[in-house]
Amino acid sequence: MTLIAEAEAETRTAPPRRSRRPLGDAGVYLAALVVAVALLWAVAPNLFTSADPLAVQPALRFRPPSADHWFGTDQLGRDLYTRVVYGARASLTGAGVAVALAVLVGAILGTVAGWFGGVTDSVIGRAIDVVLSIPGFLFAITIVVLLGFGVLQAAVAVGLTSSATFARLIRSEVLKARSSNYVEAAITSGASTFAILRRHVLPNSFTATLALITVQFGIAIIWIASLSFLGLGAQPPQPEWGLLVSDGRNYIASRGWLTLWPGLTVVAVVLATNHLSHHLGRRRTP
Amino acid sequence: MRRYLIRRLGQALLVLWAAYSLSFALLSALPGDAISNRIASPDSGLTAESGAVLLRYYGLDQPLWEQYLRGIARAARGDLGLSLHTAQPVQDLLADTLPSTLALTGLALMVGILLAAVIALAVNYLPSARLRGLFAGAPSLFASVPTFVVGILALQYLSFTAGLIPSVDDGSLTALLAPAVTLGLVIAAPLAQVFGASIRTTRSQPFVHVLHAKGAGEGYIFRKDVFRNSSLPVLTLLGLAFGELIAGSVVTESVFARDGVGNLVVGAVNTQDLPVVQGVVLLSTTTYVLVNLAVDVACPFIDPRVLVGVTS
What we know:
The structure holds 2 protein chains of 2 kinds. Chain A has helices at about 5-10, 20-45, 80-115, 120-130, 135-145, 150-180, 180-190, 195-205, 205-230, 240-250, 255-285. By secondary structure, chain A is mainly alpha-helical. Chain A has a single domain (about 75-285), classed as Orthogonal Bundle (MetI-like fold). Mean pLDDT of chain A is about 85; it is low at about 10-20. Chain B is mainly α. Chain B has a domain at about 95-305: MetI-like fold (Orthogonal Bundle). Chain B has helices at about 1-30, 35-40, 50-55, 65-75, 90-125, 130-135, 140-145, 145-160, 175-205, 205-215, 220-230, 230-255, 260-270, 275-300, 310. The model of chain B has no long low-confidence stretch (mean pLDDT about 85). At the A-B interface, helix 1, helix 4, helix 5, helix 9 and helix 10 of A face helix 1, helix 7, helix 8, helix 9 and helix 12 of B. Chain B: Pfam families: BPD_transp_1, BPD_transp_1_N.
């Protein structure tokens, strides 16, 4: 799902049509609020709920949403709101791990390919092309077969898959910097390769990478939740957003809240992440 | 043109070979397969001899490099090996599930393109700025909603609450429509964004201003000039979006319980049926590569200028 990133990059080059957007700022604040709350859920879930996400209470099965149970309760009487709050940890940590791994692998491969060029570049470049021409989600599924089921495994699978996108971007940024005058000057003045990469090349590719990071974060949330939904990620009884929706699918005929609230939570968080990323992208290219 | 085509075909074959090798390497790194696990489990009732027969039957007793070479020679002839779970040939399993997936993705592709075109036109041509802004927000909304959420909510409200569509796949067109729209949204988002931006760029070009000055109407200019000039980026993106269509079909088929390739691969992952996983990866990579090749071949027909850099 790197396409959205490409599509965004393409739209970003177009000049902004309207300079004044009275609602635009409010939207950004709202998005920032949603992301902040989700992050707080992940860091300190016990601040938002006093219940235990795993506590089974057969007497409270299938309670519809109410003042006591905001999102209702599930087939084992567990409070769904509590499970959604605790689910943020699995989903957001997973996305964080995935993006961090993708940046790390992508930065190493991209820098080596872009800086050393020649055969190294051809080999790495071809490898990136190959990974990008395998449909990404299936590539992630293949890695899941190898690693087994779990949020962390799903995160690693998603991270390795999207590292090709980062590698391609960073390679082109490094190539651009390598042919610039200031890098030529640094080489002539006898700076070591490592110092040049650290002080000149990588900082210059930072902004472009940051834009891709924010886009990929939303994508990683969706992918990890989708893998969990398919039963290939988080395993019960761990609360995770995709798994919560999947757990609720046996009861959609009569207990719709079980799928509705976790589903809307994912949508809200991803929408907010994407909105923030779009906003950052616009600020970057005035 | 011919040399261009041959080079692209060569690249496509290289990608397929690499995809096969990569999936083979990934899957053979696994500490055990379904057959070895079955033999090793104490309640299988298999003796050491019958275990050895099973391993030989599936070719798992050979050294890895021999399995790899034999596998690649067979795959080139369209033989993808046997499922470790049902012992059926993988290509038969794919052939059984493919029609359902093709129907789903085909209709989803049409829905996605249609939706993207409507949004792109609305964003550019609606008279009211407020309405244009409303449509401009649609692609980012579509891109933020996970396929499984759309699918589950559609099933929940359209099928169980409103009773508009059947909840299981009964082969009818109405049963196909909800999954197709769900999947269509996935590709509508990037297509609408790029098509909208592309129309905007084209409309700001001098020759369009000239046409306006000569008195041509908006509709006429769009049909005759703007459409073809702004469709090239969309076509290129369509090839790339095909990968998302394949990914989305896995999730959509799971939501709507359709017996397609996506459900086949999810089941195969759960039973560690490696040849089936590899078969699905190869099939989808082949499709993806071929679609993108077709797009590359089609581009010069829409805009002959793309050939300028290639042939000279």
